Amino acid sequence: MTFLVGRALTYAITATAGSGFLLFGYDQGVMSSLLTGDAFIATFPEIDTTKGGHGSSSLQGTVVAIYEIGCFLGAIVSLLVGERLGRRKCIMAGCIVLSIGAALQCSAYSIPHLIVGRIIAGVGNGLNTSTIPVWHSEMSKAASRGKGLAIELAINIFGVMLSYWVDYGMSYVKNEAQFRFPIALQILFALLTFIGVLCLPESPRWLIQHGEESKARHIIWALQDNAREIDHDDPVVVTDVNEITRAVHEEQEASSGGSFKLLFQNNKQRFMYRTLLGMGGQAMQQLSGINLITYYATVIFEQSVGMSHHTALLLAGFNGIAYFFSSLVPIWTIERLGRRKLMMFAVLGQGCCMAILAGTIWDGGKSAGLVATVMLFVFNFFFAVGLLAIPWLLPAEYSPLAIRTRSAAMATATNWICTFLVVEIVPVSISNIGYKTYIYFAVFNFCFFPLIYLFYPETQNLTLEQVDLLFTNEKVLLHWDSSLGIAGDVNTRVGNATAKDLESVNAQHVE
């Protein structure tokens, strides 16, 4: 089962989930600086868009973005077989497939070879990113679930930062190791994630859903901070098991067999509404324009701002450092301020940054270039605070257990198809319409604010079973109310709320 208990087990779970997302972040950032490296463009001149190069910007966009198609396919695989395999097996399979893709990429000498490697690596990453947030959320307590996912995504940005600096260090190498070593390094992180998951337990919620209550009880006991001081029949453990079992029974009754069609049915559990919220959050994350910067930071510094290749590499590295430190902010704020406030803060800030970027790049002067550079740093701050972790957290929080794996996979697939769209069009857009590229991203961000305010419930400090109650009333509640019980208290049975309580809350607290 597991040799770790208490906080040691919690820390090991967070570290392993973080390792998986470090791999995700590293993979996202590693191509950014390689695209303009001497060895890379000598090996792949077809996508050389540097000054004096004759490569195709559209082909460059496709080579970079095809990875997202692989990730999309991986999310679909998770959608189809993830619930049957379980959380652990999905993650381990993802690590193996990603390693194969990485090996193909780092040995490539032609564009087709490189593309095949990127697609296969993407499938592995799609499996991981569909499953890791669900596994991590289901293993976390209500009061620390958001903090745990914020730590996970901070490690993700450490991966982005690490990739920038590995690329910068390898830029001084004048042979093909300049790009082959950075690509191959991701295999190490995949191996660490695989070993971590191999040594850690399955989600107790998945086990209960599949008739393994005794194993689930042991894991819930092991996850308690004072596990060594209590036994498996402790009231806290029993209450947790009973609450999850009750939720499973209610959701299985609503699911009537678990058809995929349920994802888009608004029954009593509001499956479609909850699925669309998760998909919408992931779409917002990518249409904000973050991967305009993550994938093409060096290209932007060189082509839009006019810097030398060396300066662009160096600034991309410092941008990664600033991005990482910004990603630490939600660790302390996500459970204090909640999801909604942070998301709305982020999209307003990001919209302003994109608008200023458009103006400064349109101006084209040296001073304007400095302002544009600052805006790239500031944009990453807003994104890290409000849109980095939360869209990965919400699908796991909003989705009921009966459809959680499939709903999270749909959300992840949405993330990757939107990422593909952004990464595919950005090189062509920058080449053809220049500063106007940043205008449409500014518009997107400003449009997200009312969507978050009107439709996204606050899940701060709620157990996953309490989150269900926000959606199962006459109207969707955007905030928890004390009349329904104590938020996050495992001894409070959310099913005990009376009809009068629900009517009062619906009348007073639905915005």
From TrEMBL:
TM spans (from-to): 9-26, 64-82, 149-166, 178-200, 276-298, 310-330, 342-362, 368-394, 406-426, 438-456
UniProt-listed InterPro entries: MFS_dom (IPR020846), MFS_sugar_transport-like (IPR005828), MFS_Sugar_Transporters (IPR050360), MFS_trans_sf (IPR036259), Sugar/inositol_transpt (IPR003663)
Keyword vocabulary terms for this entry: Membrane, Transmembrane, Transmembrane helix, Transport
Compartments where located: Membrane
Main location: membrane
Gene Ontology, cellular component aspect: membrane
Protein name (Swiss-Prot/TrEMBL): Major facilitator superfamily (MFS) profile domain-containing protein
